[in-house]
Amino acid sequence: MGTFIVGMAVILCVLLAVRSMVRDKRNGKSHCGGDCSQCKGHCN
Question: Which helix (H) or strand (E) holds 31?
Answer without folding.
Answer: none
